[in-house]
């Protein structure tokens, strides 16, 4: 090292020699020796134009420099130059360095450049893969630096990349980003389903991605997991495609093949598919058949298969309304507690905790208590927590609860946290009927030769508060209670002895016959070295020595009032985040109630048969231990729950914000024209043309959209989605998932199925995105308005006027008065009639004697809202250049909406009339 230091001072050092010496420094560092030279030489090597020198420079930087090193500021510009270079090798070296060092300052400076490499159409596939993984690394370390929501559409579009390697890496990135930005990345669901359908159903994949006859299992697993973060799609086309994929995966797994690698890959996909099927609908036939498969898996000879089988059954138990299918295999699950592998034993514990209910709680808790005596020390703390929670949650008897918890403390000893015995005290204090029994049971437990300190605390507290209730019964006299506690006190910690001193003070008030013995204890403790015990004893001695008629002692020693409902300290201790590199869980260990939010629990209205319904003094004294996620080792809770997110975060996604519409001078004119015609141009620019054609019958309709590519290059990552502002009133879905590519100079047709369920006021929005050099987005309204679902009705003049009068005036009558443009000084009657007929009213010429006026009638059809009559009268005035539209309908909302729709087309320029 001294020789190298001397060489670095040589002004004639060549770049080749510099590379050689830096390589020696790296080797010395790898051997474990401290290195304090070579940093500047490494920085200089990065700027070299030779690959071999640049490679050694980057290697030295990643090994010798940490993320907070001052030298890193010197290499940021060199790394940026390599990212901007046209050499793919330089790009990759720079990406490796960023991913390995990954400091916050470097992330802030270079993340946009990494993103540019990822989305650049000129980047090679292997560069895109490294860029995606580098962004993933930076996001996991410094999530606030990455503008994930802004980059959402552009990153998701690369999921359609024809190179499956790029798709895998980008899916990994999307999987991490979507967990924190669900709304922004919602479009990835359609991409995931489309890619799965092409892989599993259409078999579109290169031969090199077939792993032991399983097409790219890594990508399939990631896509299936990604879909579990979102609620089931309301688009029936997407849902149907996903169901076909799941059925194909289940069917492929039913074919037995002895090849181990094939089985591993297929099982990885199968378990993820089962998890997705449970997420979509726990009652589906797919889940029913999956339960049978899982029962076979937990008996498998392979440890991994048993582990995954138990974990997936726990997922089912966390979502299912009924646990009967799982309870059939209860004996096998109990046997899994004694599996040779501790990971399997842990998953068996999770499953037993999840499937525990009122019916089997005593059996499961009893078995867990028996197993607790021989369980691994690494598992005992988690078992104690789950036993305590299950006992409290599903106990129908207070006595069984107290017996079980005291037995738990006796068995587990030091593995029982203080929070558990705190909870016992709270329940006993809040339940008057339980106090006598708890005092007797606590006394009996204290008689055991070996008694854990937590039991002494419970016994001391309960006897101090309620010992007088049993003092008159044989064997429970005041002196026997005092003698029993005093024999245990000498072997306890200072904190426990302090609690016992408080018990003795309580007894001074209720047991005057043993007061001399109690005062003697206080006097003896006045001279101990522990300051807390000494002060407490002195104060208690002074209080106990006061005259008997003094009320101070009685006031101090009053019975403890009931505890108020409070947040469990156990919950606060267990709410710990998992590592930053782990995916958030989409469910928590526990039954269905543990996976529901508080609002859904309030609305469920389930009959309470547990301890929750037995308390008399507080409304919810036993809720502190419920709803905990004990899935991680040592009771660490999943990240999603720790962040305050409800499990099954998919069900709580906030509605998407208002969609900014694409602006174009002609868009409004094209839209208005299509509100009263069935086919015309919907949108056009220099890259794409969208044609529109529709037909409606009753409450149903079909719309054909024609996407024409006007460029000489294909439109890649083509994505078309429909956003319906009022999904309860209108349904608009694609008949099939749109293709991801539109070929050059050609047109592709997509059909929409439309259903009017009720009155709606906002039209659906077509959202398009595609790659044409850069990412292009188009958001336009579809001319699907309420008048499209009108059916023309023939009415005689008498019948028309009878209905007109029957409907009456406002609010079921709406009028619109507006100016009109005249052609040659006269009203364009033909155009007005065309608009009225285009709005699906039947013209009734014989009703109004004035031929300039238009009268029409129609019936609005809705699948859930029924049929609504609608009458129309248009009265233009050439002299006043005004037009009055009057609409009467049995629904005031329909009247207002129809009048509003008709006003604008009738008042438009004549030049906008289609010829």
From TrEMBL:
Adaptins are components of the adaptor complexes which link clathrin to receptors in coated vesicles. Clathrin-associated protein complexes are believed to interact with the cytoplasmic tails of membrane proteins, leading to their selection and concentration. It is a peripheral membrane protein. GO terms for biological process: clathrin-dependent endocytosis; intracellular protein transport. It comes from the Eukaryota. It comes from Tulasnella calospora MUT 4182. Belongs to the adaptor complexes large subunit family. It is found in: Membrane, Coated pit. The keyword Hydrolase does not apply. A 1,2-diacyl-sn-glycero-3-phospho-(1D-myo-inositol-3,4,5-trisphosphate) binds at residues 7, 20-24. Its main location: membrane. This is AP-2 complex subunit alpha.
């Amino acid at each position: 090292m001294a020789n190298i230091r001397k060489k670095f001072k040589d002004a004639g050092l060549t770049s080749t020699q510099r590379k050689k010496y830096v390589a020696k420094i790296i080797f010395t560092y790898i051997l474990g020796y401290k290195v304090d030279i070579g940093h500047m030489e490494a920085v200089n090597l990065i700027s070299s134009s030779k690959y071999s020198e640049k490679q050694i420079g980057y290697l030295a930087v990643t090994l010798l420099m940490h993320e907070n090193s001052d030298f890193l500021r010197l290499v940021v510009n060199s790394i940026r130059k390599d990212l901007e270079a046209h050499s793919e090798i330089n790009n990759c070296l720079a990406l490796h360095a960023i991913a390995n060092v990954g400091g916050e300052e470097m992330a802030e400076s270079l993340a946009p450049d990494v993103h540019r490499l990822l989305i650049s159409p000129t980047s090679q596939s292997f560069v895109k893969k490294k860029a995606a993984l580098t962004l993933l690394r930076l996001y996991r370390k410094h999530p606030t630096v990455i503008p994930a929501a802004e980059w959402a559409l552009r990153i998701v579009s690369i999921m359609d990349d024809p190179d499956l390697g790029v798709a895998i890496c980008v899916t990994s990135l999307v999987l991490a980003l979507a967990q924190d930005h669900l709304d922004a990345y919602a479009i990835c669901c359609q991409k995931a389903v489309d890619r799965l359908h092409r892989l599993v159903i259409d078999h579109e994949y290169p031969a090199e991605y077939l792993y032991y006859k399983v097409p790219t299992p890594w990508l399939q697993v990631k896509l299936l997991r990604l879909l579990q973060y979102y609620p089931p799609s309301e688009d029936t086309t997407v849902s149907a495609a996903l169901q076909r994929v799941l059925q194909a995966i289940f069917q492929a797994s039913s074919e037995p093949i002895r090849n181990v690698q094939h089985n591993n890959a297929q099982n990885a996909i199968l378990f993820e598919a089962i998890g997705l099927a449970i997420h979509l609908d726990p009652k589906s036939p797919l889940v029913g058949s999956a339960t049978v498969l899982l029962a076979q898996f937990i008996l498998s000879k392979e440890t991994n298969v048993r582990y995954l089988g138990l974990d997936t059954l726990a997922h089912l138990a966390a979502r299912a309304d009924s646990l009967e299918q799982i309870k059939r295999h209860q004996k096998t699950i109990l046997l899994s507690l004694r599996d040779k592998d501790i990971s399997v034993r842990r998953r068996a514990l999770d499953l037993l905790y999840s499937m525990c209910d009122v019916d089997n709680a005593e059996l499961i808790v009893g078995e867990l208590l028996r197993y607790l005596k021989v369980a691994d020390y690494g598992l005992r703390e988690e078992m104690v927590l789950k036993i305590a929670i299950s006992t409290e949650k599903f106990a129908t008897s207070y006595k069984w609860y107290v017996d079980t918890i005291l037995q738990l403390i006796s068995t587990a000893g030091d593995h029982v946290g203080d929070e558990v015995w705190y909870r016992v005290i709270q329940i006993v204090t809040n339940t008057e009927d339980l106090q006598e029994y708890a005092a007797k049971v606590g006394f009996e437990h204290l008689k055991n030769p070996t008694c854990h300190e937590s039991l002494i605390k419970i016994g001391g507290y309960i006897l101090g508060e309620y010992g007088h209730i049993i003092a008159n019964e044989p064997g429970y006299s005041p002196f026997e209670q005092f003698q029993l506690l005093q024999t245990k006190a000498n072997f306890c910690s200072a904190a426990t002895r302090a609690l016992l001193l408080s018990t003795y003070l309580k007894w001074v008030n209720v047991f005057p016959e043993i007061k001399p013995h109690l005062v003697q204890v206080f006097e003896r403790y006045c001279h101990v070295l522990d300051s807390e015990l000494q002060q407490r004893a002195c104060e208690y001695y002074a209080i106990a020595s006061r005259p008997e008629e003094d009320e101070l002692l009685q006031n101090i020693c009053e019975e403890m009032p009931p505890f108020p409902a409070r947040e469990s300290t156990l919950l606060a201790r267990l709410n710990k985040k998992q590592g930053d590199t782990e995916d958030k869980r989409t469910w928590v260990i526990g039954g269905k109630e543990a996976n529901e939010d508080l609002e859904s629990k309030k609305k469920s209205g389930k009959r309470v048969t547990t301890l929750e319904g037995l308390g008399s003094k507080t409304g919810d004294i036993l809720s502190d231990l419920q709803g905990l996620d004990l899935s991680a080792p040592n009771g660490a809770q999943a990240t999603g729950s720790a962040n305050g997110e409800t499990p099954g975060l998919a069900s709580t996604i906030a509605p998407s914000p208002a969609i900014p519409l694409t602006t174009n001078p002609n868009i409004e004119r094209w839209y208005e024209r299509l509100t009263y015609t069935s086919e015309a141009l919907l949108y056009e620019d220099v890259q794409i043309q969208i044609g529109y054609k529709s037909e409606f019958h009753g409450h149903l309709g079909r719309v054909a959209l024609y996407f024409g590519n006007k460029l000489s290059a294909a439109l890649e990552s083509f994505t078309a989605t429909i956003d319906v502002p009022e999904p309860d009133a209108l349904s608009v879905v694609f008949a099939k998932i749109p293709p991801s590519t539109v070929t050059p100079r050609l047109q592709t047709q997509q059909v929409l199925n439309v259903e009017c369920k009720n009155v709606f006021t906002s039209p659906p929005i077509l959202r398009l995105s595609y790659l044409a050099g850069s990412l292009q987005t188009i958001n336009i309204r579809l001319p699907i308005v309420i008048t499209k679902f009108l059916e023309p009705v023939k009415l005689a003049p008498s019948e028309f006027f009878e209905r007109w009068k029957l409907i009456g005036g406002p609010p079921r009558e709406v009028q619109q008065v507006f100016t009109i443009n005249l052609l040659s000084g006269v009203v364009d009657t033909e155009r007005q009639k065309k608009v009225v007929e285009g709005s699906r009213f039947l013209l009734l010429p014989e009703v109004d004697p004035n031929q300039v006026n238009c009268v029409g009638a129609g019936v609005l059809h809705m699948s859930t809202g029924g049929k609504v009559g609608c009458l129309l009268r248009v009265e233009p005035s050439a002299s006043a250049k005004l037009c009055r539209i009057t609409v009467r309908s049995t629904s005031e909302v329909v009247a207002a909406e129809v009048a509003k729709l008709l006003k604008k087309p009738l008042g438009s320029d004549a030049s906008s009339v289609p010829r």
